[in-house]
Amino acid sequence: xxxxxxxxxxxxxxxxxxxxxxxxxxxxxxxxxxxxxxxxxxxxxxxxxxxxxxxxxxxxxxxxxxxxxxxxxxxxxxxxxxxxxxxxxxxxxxxxxxxxxxxxxxxxxxxxxxxxxxxxxxxxxxxxxxxxxxxxxxxxxxxxxxxxxxxxxxxxxxxxxxxxxxxxxxxxxxxxxxxxxxxxxxxxxxxxxxxxxxxxxxxxxxxxxxxxxxxxxxxxxxxxxxxxxxxxxxxxxxxxxxxxxxxxxxxxxxxxxxxxxxxxxxxxxxxxxxxxx
Length: 277
Prior knowledge:
- With 277 residues, this protein is α+β, with helices and mostly antiparallel strands.
- Helix content is 49%, strand content 14%.
- The strands form 2 sheets. Strands 3-8-4-5-6-7 form a 6-stranded antiparallel beta sheet.
- Helix 3 crosses helix 4.
- The longest helix is centred in the middle third of the chain and has 87 residues.
- The radius of gyration is 55 Å and the shape is rod-shaped.
- The protein starts with 16 loop residues before the first helix and ends with a strand.
- About 11% of the residues have low confidence.
């Protein structure tokens, strides 16, 4: 073993090349600045003593971190702005689409209501024309009754007494509205009209059609008399009733579309009839 093996070395540790270059660059910059300042001054000028503070590596790292943070914040804000713009655009497009659909629905509804109103007007006109024709026919038949004629079919007789009161009342309501549960004076349902008509003759009938058609005695449709109650469905479970007024016709509160009408038996043939008078 060498005698110097345990003697500690007095050599200074080597510095890395990058650190030496950095120190050399900083020192060279300081010396260059001082040299330029000395050369530019007058020959007899007093020596200038100036302390130049150089940025430290710590401050450079802080500035770099601040710049990176600011850039990240700017990028995040820009992304947020773009997202908001996209959301606003989507919302505007949806609102425009909804408005267009709502307008189309409103137009269709208005067109349907207009068509329904026009159809009701045409139907009302047909009803008025029918009533006018009926009145004309009755008037003509009445004028010939003095010659022994009749305003009714050969199988019926002109109503008299209670039947006449019932028929007259029923015909007076033709043109009134149909309202479910209606009992007058200007709107009726089928059984409400029959009940009110029979009340003119001093006869109290049940309120509903099934009970009304169960009253009295059953008669065939070929042997009807004015004032008979016509029914649709079974006798004890009828769903509609009307009053036979003679001449092969009846008066009844049909439905909300037609209201109270006078129609031929052939228009809607009833299931049967009962006689109470």
